[in-house]
Amino acid sequence: MDCDYLVVGTGSAGSVVANRLSADPNSRVVVIEAGPMDTDKFIHIPAAFSKLFRSPVDWDYLTEPQKDVGGREIYWPRGKVLGGSSSLNAMMWVPGFPADYDEWAEHAGAEWDYAHLRPYFDRVENAALVISPQRSPRSSTAAWLRAAEQVGYRVTTPGAPMLDGFCQTAVTQRRGARWSCADAYLKPVLFRRNLTLLTKLLRAAGDLRKHPGDRSGVRRRRRSPPDGPGRPGGGVVRRRGEYTPVADAVRNR
After folding, report:
1. pTM of this structure
2. Contact between residue 202 and residue 251 where contact means Cβ atoms under 8 Å apart
3. Which of its termini does the chain have fewer beta carbons within 10 Å around, N or C?
C-alpha cells in the first residue's frame, strides 16, 4: 500500500491532521492507530471514564520517579484507542486564561498571544468539536462557586472570556455522550477513497519495523488483519511523502 502521508496516531492531533491532509483528493493518506476502534461502551459514557484507566485502551504510563513526592512514580493514563486520549480523558474543555498565552508571546513571539490565538479557539468551538455545558453537574460545584463569589471572586460562564475568576467547566460531549476528536474529525471523513485507517497495528505486528530495503516504509505481519471499516489487512505501507507522528505516537519503547 502506497501513500503520500503516513499519520501515526489518531488522537486529538492525528484525527485533525488526517482530516486536513485527506481533504486533497490527490493525496493518499494512511493513518495508523496502535489500539482498537472505540467500541468499548465506557468510552461513550461520560460518568464511566475512570473505568477505562489501566484497561486495554490505556497505555498505562508511569512518570519517572518524582523527587518532590518522595520518589514516587505517578500514574499517567493515555489513550491506546481510536481518538487517543480524547477517548479516555475527563472531557473537560479548558482553553486557559489570556495571561497564559500572553506569557507565551513574551518568549515565543507576538503571534502566540491570546489575541492571535483566540480565533483558533473560536474555530474549534464553532466547528466539528462539540462543546457543551455539563448535563448533571454536582451540587457541590454550585455551592463552591457561590462560596467563591461570596468572598469576592468573579464567577462567569464557560463561554465567556475569562480574565480572572471561576466558572463551571464545559465538556466535549454531544447529546450526553463523549465527543472525541475522532468523532469530530476522523469518522466523518472515512468515506474518502484516498483515506485509509488501520487500527490495532501494534497488536498485529508487535512493533513497527522498517521495511527491509525501503527506507520509507513500515511493515506489518500478515497473521492478524487490523480493525477498520473495510480495510484490507497484511503487507507493507510505503510512504512517498511525509511521515507525521503526533503526540503519544512519539514515545520511548
Report:
1. 0.81
2. no
3. C
